[in-house]
Amino acid sequence: MEASTETNNKFSEEEQVVTPWEVAGNGGKIDYDKLIDRFGCQRIDQSLVQRVEKLTSQPAHVFLRRNVFFAHRDFAEILDAYEKGENFYLYTGRGPSSEALHLGHLIPFMFTKYLQEAFKVPLVIQLTDDEKFLWKNLTIEESRRLARENAKDIIACGFDVSKTFIFSDFDYVGGAFYRNMVQIGKRVTYNQVVGIFGFIGEDHIGKVSFPPVQAAPSFPSSFPHLFEGKGNLRCLIPCAIDQDPYFRMTRDVAPKIGYNKPALIESSFFPALQGETGKMSASDPNSAIYVTDSAKDIKNKVNRYAFSGGQDSIEKHRQLGANLEVDIPIKYLSFFLEDDAELEHIKKEYGAGRMLTGEVKQRLIQVLTEIVERHRTARANVTEKI
Question: Does the keyword Cytoplasm feature in the UniProt annotation (predicted)?
Answer without folding.
Answer: yes
